[in-house]
Amino acid sequence: MWINKIKINNFRNYNLQEINLEKNINIFYGENAQGKTNIIEAIFLGSMGKSFRAKKDREMIQLNKNHSIIEIEFQKSDRDGKIKIELENKKKVLVNGVKIKKLSELLGNINVVIFTPDDINILKGGPQNRRRFLDIMISQLKPNYMHNLNLYLKTLEQRNHYLRQIKEENKEEKLLEVWDEKLAEYAINISRYRKQFIEKIKEKIKKIHHEITENKEDIEIEYVTECIQKEEFLQILKQRRKLDIIKGFTTKGIHRDDFMIYINKKQLDIYGSQGQHRTAILSLKLSELNIIYDEIGEYPILLLDDFMSELDQKRRNHLLEKIENTQVIITCTDKIDIENKNILIYNVKEGKVIKGGK
């Protein structure tokens, strides 16, 4: 799988730009705040239908402009394809010229794995970061997962609204059972997907981490959830009903799921060094890369947004060894010397992309 061409119009600091990509390694270098990450963001948007950094689509439209267009031409082993995303008052997504009705119809056309300096927060930050990592990975491979997750979140919002009505307007408490039933149904489906993919990560991550650390570190990953069996989860919701009413929100559910990583039996987020965190996130992302390959028979596109600077030479070399058959888009402040690779280099300056450098 690889991208042949990207066209962006009125996107972030770009007016109109067309970029052809090499099948292997593509390097975009330049000073900070010139537009390098915007290219990564445009590709991610074409894959997932949303940004990895903007909360609202409006933020991606160029200042003083009313609309933005991103077009991506890509190739897979069995077909060519084209994604077009129009950002205006309402987002419009076309796959091979056909407007899609649900965002889940976009997922899986272009598969990506993204590395950013902020990814260290997947392990260091709160559970929401780790859930988001799982959501991005799973939804690319199982679009129905995102459909279930959206239904869960909508039902959760409705349940929370009704909890507040019970507290403030003395609404009938028994009616919560309607929301509980739906919430449990979606929660168990999502939990099954997550548990399945954590098991796949377990299979990959041990071997990868052993190689990176030269067998000095053993890594383990554990999925933490209370939504394994529907009846058990319904019982939890019932037991916590009074507390939920007092607080005005649902205190248990898959929106509280987490996974823990241990290095040599010690919890990484508590006892891990900076180097161990970097190595663990590298192992985790390489596991994601290999899981996607196992699922679809092709390597996803690897997006490295200023991530090479986060790695020492040893970790950098290990990463490069593992991405032989992968299209890679790299952003960095300086040119990177990568031997024995087909490389296309662009210099990015003030929203202009110049092939070959300055």
Model description:
By secondary structure, this protein is of the alpha/beta class. The protein contains ten helices and 15 strands. Strands 2-1-4-5-6-7 form a six-stranded antiparallel sheet, with helices on one face. A six-stranded mixed sheet has the order 8-12-13-3-14-15, with helices on both faces. Strands 9-10-11 form a three-stranded antiparallel sheet. The protein is globular, with a radius of gyration of 22 Å. The two termini are 30 Å apart.
What brief labels describe this structure?
42% helix; 358 residues
Sheet of most strands: 6 strands, antiparallel
The number of strands is 15
Mean pLDDT: 92
Number of helices: 10
The CA-CA distance between the termini, in Å, is: 30 Å
The percentage of residues in β strands lies in 15-25%
Radius of gyration: 22 Å
SSE sequence, one letter per element: EEEHEEEEEHHHHEHHEEHHEHEEE
Unreliable stretches covering 5 or more consecutive residues: none
- What structural class should be given to the helix and strand makeup? alpha/beta
Please estimate the helix content: 40-55%
The 3D shape can be described as: globular
Strand order of the largest sheet: 2-1-4-5-6-7
What does this entry show, briefly?
This protein is an alpha/beta fold and 358 residues long. It is built from ten helices and 15 strands.
Secondary structure elements and pairings:
Blueprint: E1 2-11, E2 14-20, E3 25-29, H1 36-48, E4 68-75, E5 80-87, E6 92-95, E7 98-99, E8 112-115, H2 120-124, H3 127-141, H4 143-169, H5 176-212, E9 219-224, H6 230-239, H7 241-247, E10 258-263, E11 266-267, H8 268-271, H9 274-296, E12 301-305, H10 313-321, E13 328-332, E14 343-349, E15 352-355
Parallel strand pairs: 3-13, 3-14, 8-12, 12-13
Antiparallel strand pairs: 1-2, 1-4, 4-5, 5-6, 6-7, 9-10, 10-11, 14-15
Helix pairs in contact: 3-4, 4-5, 4-7, 5-6, 5-9
